[in-house]
Design brief:
6-stranded parallel β-sheet, disordered C terminus, homodimer, globular, about 40% helix, about 15% strand, alpha/beta
């Protein structure tokens, strides 16, 4: 197999922002971004230092027309040296397409919430685990280098069933690995997670499966996205999903923000003294281009408004005025 | 002296959100809120469970006309049983007014950044320390119960001078206590702090001065406000300043968000399993009233848009569609 990062970024003092805007962002908005713009986005993200990008989803085009060109976008991604390209695959059929196309990583979503799983994937969580075993067998039989990440969503609560038991999340992480996933990740699909809960669950999960817990996926629906990234980082996580311009919003809360915003997260991680390899100013410039392509869609995030810190300028009173 | 909380909220599992919207929020916007509205805000905040509120600033009315009615607002606050009312006082003259008015707490701002201190307070940091000693002597001579909090601002960087040395911040915390402050707090006045830096500095500060480091004041200028609160909480801090509706913005970054938003922070803390005594739904309702009073001003925050979680509703695909 090709040498691909399986773990959290193993370099001390480094962290990885995995761009998911081209998948999680674009699937959640009405606009279909033309393939040429997706490729321009990929190229600019790559130029800004992004080296892990989820480029789309292998689902039928009638269900997600916004991602119908995933194979084309992936083919371009595979031409960029050192770029690790992932795709979402909801089942064996999608995985077969990903294997054929040579995706580096296949992310298989599983909902820890039984209710959410049935409603969205039409499978129980354990049926998804069984599908991962089939994907693994197919991958191995094909001698493919495509790796499998089991992504456990609704890990911090669910809009349908409310609480999701931590023990059930942990059981499913282990089951995914036992079924043949190369690594696993945890997602707060619906924006319910708080940082104390994040740190607690990630610590428990890492105690159970170690470095095979390789990524964290948070939404910023209630403003806690960056706090949750920090909490997961404290638990040893160094790979975070994020979405340029926070595009996508939240299907459960119209108008609310969606994924953690790439440029805000990159700024925070760099400010924390971590090396991300990212050029934050270039990401802000790309945000502006994407904003132009997605006229009419709401972008999110905070840094674009405040800008990068600049240590000059006129005196402005903040805490007090002299009296 | 009256029994007033000097430390971080000492009750296990509790946290305190100190409302600073009536001071830090209102001083930063063009609109002057009528006194009757400030009193209605106070009453509603009290009804929503807020028990620590900064009601204004004793500075000359010509400098901050928005806060010219601080004495009236404070007088009303003192009629609310169990409410701890603080005011900002930039110097001895302001402190004398606060003592006369019977404020529970006087918050004296000090800028750890030498450049920021000279530009905004027209004093060096050590001249502010000397002023605190005079305030303490005056307070004691008057037999007043008003306590003194030294608030060290620009503790995480400065728009004028850039970096602020941690050792200098620590030196000034100790100097304020030595000069007679009853407790101290740390503020990220300009929105430069990141959570790793926050946790590191708060841990160092608590090692130095223990529970006399009693509060954290963050701005959300670059989206890290809640992450910084979580980081400070990890260092043992349980009192946080925040601003209803995030009003006030940032004088250094037009259009950017200002203080941490009260209702977002209250939601996060409650979600973390801490008891704040706050009714978040009532805070959201108050936000709407304040929004109406401040027509034309931009409010900030995230929770108001997404709303409180509700575990019902139609199925919506998030991670994937069935294929």
């Amino acid at each position: 197999m090709a040498s691909l990062p399986t773990l959290c970024d193993p370099r001390p003092g480094h962290a990885t922002v995995r761009e998911v805007g081209l998948r999680d962002g674009l699937q959640s908005i009405a606009t279909t971004l033309p393939t040429a713009h997706k490729i321009a986005w990929l190229d600019a993200a790559y130029a800004a230092g992004q080296r892990e990008i989820e480029v789309g989803s292998f689902v039928p085009a009638r269900l997600l027309p916004q991602l119908a060109d995933t194979a084309e976008v992936l083919a371009h991604a595979l031409t960029l040296p050192g770029l690790v390209a992932s795709v979402l695959v909801p089942n064996l059929k999608g995985a077969e397409r990903a294997i054929d196309a040579g995706a580096h990583w296949m992310v298989v979503p599983l909902s820890a919430s039984h209710a959410h799983s049935l409603a969205n994937l039409r499978k129980t969580p354990d049926e998804v685990v069984a599908e991962v075993a089939r994907i693994r067998a197919t991958r191995d039989a094909a001698g493919s280098a495509s790796r499998i990440e089991g992504g456990v969503g609704t890990a911090f609560g669910c809009t349908l069933q409310g609480d999701v038991a931590e023990d059930e999340v942990l059981r499913l992480l282990q089951a995914l690995l036992d079924a043949g996933a190369d690594r696993v990740s945890l997602a707060d699909t619906v924006g319910y997670a708080d940082p104390a809960g994040v740190q607690r669950l990630f610590e428990k999960a890492r105690t159970l499966v170690g470095d095979r817990l390789a990524a964290a996926h948070f939404h910023d629906t209630r403003g806690m996205g960056l706090a949750n990234c920090y909490a997961a980082w404290q638990a040893g996580i160094t790979r975070f999903d994020a979405c340029l311009g926070g595009i996508g919003g939240c299907p459960h809360a119209p108008g609310a923000s969606g994924n953690v915003t790439t440029e805000d997260l990159a700024f925070m991680l760099e400010r924390m003294g971590l090396s991300t390899g990212l050029d934050v100013a270039a990401l802000l410039a790309l945000r502006q281009r994407v904003q132009g392509w997605l006229a009419g869609e709401t972008l999110h995030g905070t840094l674009w408004q405040a800008g990068l810190p600049r240590h000059t300028g006129a005196s402005v009173s903040t805490l007090a005025q002299p009296a």
